[in-house]
Amino acid sequence: MSSSVTPKKVIIVGAGAFGLSTALYLQRYQRGKVDVLLLEAGSFPCIDSASGNDTSRAIRLDYADPFYSRLAQETIRAWKTDPVFMPHYRGSGRLGAQPPGHTNVEKCKDVLIRSGVDVEDFGDEDKVAMLQRKWPLLGNKEKLQGWDFYFTKSGGWANPREAVISAMEEYRSLGGKLIDDAQKGRVVDNILEANQIRGVKTADGQSHWADHVIYTTGAFSTLNKKLIPNLGTQIQPIGFATAHWKLEDAEELKAWEGYPVVDIYHNGYFFPPDPTTGLMKLGLGIVGFTHDEVPTSSWEDQSDVGIALRNTDLVGTNDAGKIPAIAEEGIRWVLRRWAPSLADKEFFDMKMCWDAMTPDGGWLIDHHPDIRGLSVATGGSGHGFKFLPAVGKFIAATLGVAPEDSIVSEVGQLPSLDEMRSKWRWGRPANVNVKDRKVVLQGRPILNVMHHLRAQTPGQINDMVRCRL
Ligand SMILES: Cc1cc2nc3c(=O)[nH]c(=O)nc-3n(C[C@H](O)[C@H](O)[C@H](O)COP(=O)(O)OP(=O)(O)OC[C@H]3O[C@@H](n4cnc5c(N)ncnc54)[C@H](O)[C@@H]3O)c2cc1C
Description:
Blueprint: E1 8-13, H1 17-29, E2 34-40, E3 57-59, H2 66-81, E4 89-90, E5 94-98, H3 104-114, E6 120-121, H4 127-134, E7 148-152, E8 156-158, H5 160-173, E9 177-180, E10 187-193, E11 196-202, E12 207-209, E13 212-215, E14 236-246, H6 250-255, E15 261-264, E16 268-271, E17 279-284, E18 288-290, H7 311-314, H8 325-338, E19 348-357, E20 364-367, E21 374-378, H9 391-398, H10 417-423, E22 446-448, H11 449-455, H12 461-466
Helix pairs in contact: 1-5, 1-9
Bound molecules: flavin-adenine dinucleotide.
Flavin-adenine dinucleotide binds next to helix 1, strand 2, strand 3, strand 14 and strand 19.
């Protein structure tokens, strides 16, 4: 007699780092018990996705919060050992930097040292001079007076587009199902029976039935308010501007060999050249952008949660493939301080990249309080990509789609499932009824993207830097 059990049907909506990682984990380790369908609103990797729409993402252990540092330890092991991810990881090491008056460097160093990770600091005297002895092309001595730094060899960066393609190939090769299409893959409604979800409807009118639906829709989670009701202020879509340039000259490329990723606290992320393409990038952290349902031109009016603006919706318009002039000005402003020889390079592939930011900076992974069978796993908050190789395991266990004992660490001590559930829970007081959305950027300004794209008014970057809390 057969003792087969019907697998639980799970629909995952959104094939970014959170959704794809969960689908891959379930397909690798829970096949037969869970039947997964991954739905994605654009051709994979979608140009809207924070996870697949770029060339570089920092991979780090350094967190001021030991909880995320412990998760990152597990993740970096996977970047270094899992054949799906290994080829896309570059162990350049990482420089952490902060302007005077902050404590992030001390906190990160402390967490690293307590985890047994070697940390190099830059002495007590002239830290910029020390920095330049190690990496002569980094830092403008005059403009970085008073800054503090540390360096760790642990960490580096990865090519997100290549990594998600590799993860998707693995998922598909294991029989994983994907529908990636603007009509057939875009979820437009929930199928509900009283307060129980039975499945979802896609834009082509098809119904897809499931026992459990997990929304991993990132910054787009506030776009269609029917899908995840009562999210309120827990998720705030913020766009960050990035620009690329290329080192064409072999001598110049050679001169930049061995440079680390630089986390320039609240100013941006600087990536060393990709040794094969010579591509470099800076992601701007001085300001964020949003799009309001009721447009407002003032960056001081911060009342609405806002929505993310899809690149796919902009394709074919004058606004496609652009960043506001103030963002380009900001990127050059940071480069002038950090890598003066690059500040006047010709930029290309400038774009906005959207992520779901939470007011407390933590993820949101929980069951919906009012609809049974509906869950969310989002809130990457500007640091979610590095967890691509491992976050699916945490999501599946937290939401009860994988057994509780699947949270076993390969390297150190992972937080317990109770800690994860508490940290990521829906309705955390810090995230609800947040009146001032600048909280999600710790006081940095959030500008209306369409207003700034159309007005294209540079010349305000110094005001933006000054207005921080
Ligand atoms: C500029 C920038 C720099 C960053 N730098 C780093 C870094 O250096 N290191 C790091 O670790 N993290 C970084 N992050 C954060 C990281 O990229 C994100 O936290 C992470 O990629 C978010 O993954 P996600 O799966 O939640 O969202 P996404 O990757 O955005 O995926 C969501 C997916 O859902 C799909 N979707 C939305 N609505 C629907 C629907 N109705 N139906 C079907 N599909 C839908 C979207 O098309 C999209 O593909 C950065 C983010 C940005 C924006």
